[in-house]
Every structure is written in C-alpha cells, then in structure tokens.
UniProtKB/TrEMBL annotation:
Binding site for Mg(2+): 47
Signal sequence, start to end: none
Pfam family, one: Fer4_12
Binding site for substrate: 19-21, 34, 95
Keywords: 4Fe-4S, Iron, Iron-sulfur, Lyase, Magnesium, Metal-binding, Queuosine biosynthesis, S-adenosyl-L-methionine
Protein name: 7-carboxy-7-deazaguanine synthase
Family classification: Belongs to the radical SAM superfamily. 7-carboxy-7-deazaguanine synthase family.
Role: Catalyzes the complex heterocyclic radical-mediated conversion of 6-carboxy-5,6,7,8-tetrahydropterin (CPH4) to 7-carboxy-7-deazaguanine (CDG), a step common to the biosynthetic pathways of all 7-deazapurine-containing compounds.
Family matches, as Gene3D superfamilies: Aldolase class I (3.20.20.70)
Reaction equations catalysed: 6-carboxy-5,6,7,8-tetrahydropterin + H(+) = 7-carboxy-7-carbaguanine + NH4(+)
Binding-site list for S-adenosyl-L-methionine: 44-46, 97, 146-148
Organism the protein comes from: Novosphingobium tardum
Length: 248
C-alpha cells in the first residue's frame, strides 16, 4: 500500500525537520511529513499545491493550478518510514492537505515507525471533517484540529460537521486552532466554542497571513481578543523565520 505526499520539488517528498510553528507544540523541534490531497478548498490556503491540481476549479485567491506530477509523489509506507527514521527526533507532525483522508495507510506508517522508535510522539493536523480510522486513533498522541470558518470559502455543510466537532471537542488529546483574518471571524469562534463546549485551554486563535508583516498586524488586535475571552493565542513562527516556503 502507499501514501500520496506533497513535494518540495518534483519527485522529492516533503519530509523535513523544523520547529513546529503553530499551536500547543510551537517551538518544538519536529519531523514533518506533508501528505497530499484535501477534501476542502480554503481560498487563503498556503499549501494549495497539495490539492489544487490542473483541472481543479475550486476557488483560491491566487488562482494557480499546480501540475500533479510535479507536486505529488506516491511512495509505499516502508519507503516513507525509512526517510523519517533517517532523521533525528522524537516528535512527528503529519500535516497536509488533509491527512485523515489516508487514515489506513497512515496507520500502517505509524506502526512501522513505532516498531523502531517506540517513544515517537505523533501529532496529526486535520481540518476536523474526517473521522480518524479506528486503527489510527491509538497511534496518535495529539490531534491539531483547524475547523474552517466562513471566510475560508467552504460551506459550513462541508467544513463544520457537528458529529466530528463534538467528537474532537470531547477528546482531551485534541486541540483546536482557528485561523482568523477579521474580528468577525473571532465571533464565529466564540459561537462554535459555546456550541461544542470546547475548553479554552484547548482552543487557539491564530492570525491568517503568509508574510510576517500581515501576521504581526493581525496579531495586535487578535491577541487582545484572546486575552479578553480566555483563549490561547498562536503565532506563526515558521512564517517569521522562513517565510511562506515549502519544507520549513
């Protein structure tokens, strides 16, 4: 069996070491593996090369269509595991795209990794619309849920699924991270927090932006709102350090 991965450049899977830039593990050295494909289409997505291939007309603010052959590579789980195990570190972050679309193959990959590195801490980043496969759930230490608000351009009927949000909110290993562009987005977060009883200590708000300048401008008012409502604030550390680049 195999996994579809994003690429840094044609034929080279996007597997790399860096600091986690967002959420509860921000600042921690981690191994990252970025999977390809997504079931949603955020207009401001900063990894559109994982899903907006030629022929995909879903809206995106840049309007760029990516060549699938150059931006996606398919490898068997053993080959992916070997690349990861060749890197030092005790934390793995699986991101995307939407990783849970490949839940069964991801579970097989994690089984291989834990056989060689039993103490590996695994985080999976997800948009919260796909249930973790039963074989995957015991292998994941932390889910980083990023539900997509109205400004993403996704209809709520696709992006905000009540059963999925309720299940993740009830799981103490799940942390929510909402992308905020305008103060109105924060109001939407407060409504979702109340509806699904998401604890404030597991809820992060983060400014949308692919440049340090934009992130900092939005951080000023967003940090104030987070303080007033008892929510946690997340910066985008990797944007400040490396800009909007692959493999960072």
């Amino acid at each position: 069996m195999s996994l579809a991965l994003a690429t840094v450049r044609a034929g080279e899977p996007e597997i790399f070491t860096s600091l986690q830039g967002e959420g509860p593990s921000a600042g921690r050295p981690s191994i990252f593996v970025r999977l390809s494909r997504c079931n949603l289409a955020c207009e401001w997505c900063d990894t559109a090369y994982t899903w907006r291939f030629s022929g995909d007309n879903r809206p995106h603010r840049d309007g760029v269509a990516f060549d699938r052959a150059a931006n996606q590579v398919v490898l068997d789980e053993a080959a992916v595991a070997a690349l990861i195990l060749d890197m030092p570190g005790d934390r793995l972050v699986v991101t995307g795209g939407e990783p849970l679309l490949q839940g069964t193959a991801l579970a097989r990959l994690l089984d291989l990794l834990h056989a060689h590195r039993p103490a590996l801490h695994v985080e999976v980043e997800t948009n919260g619309t796909v249930a973790p496969h039963p074989s995957l759930r015991p292998l994941v230490d932390q889910f980083n849920i990023s539900p997509k608000l109205a400004h993403s351009g996704n209809p709520a009927s696709l992006a905000l699924l009540p059963e999925r949000l309720a299940d993740f909110a009830a799981d103490a290993c799940s942390f929510f991270k909402f992308v905020i562009a305008e103060p109105a987005d924060f109001d939407e977060v407060l409504r979702l927090q109340a509806e699904y009883a998401i604890p404030g200590e597991r809820l992060f708000v983060m400014p949308e932006g692919t440049s340090s300048e934009v992130v900092r401008l939005r951080s000023v008012w967003l940090a104030d709102l987070a303080c007033r409502h008892g929510l946690r604030f997340s910066d985008r550390l990797h944007i400040h350090l490396y800009g909007d680049t692959r493999g960072t």
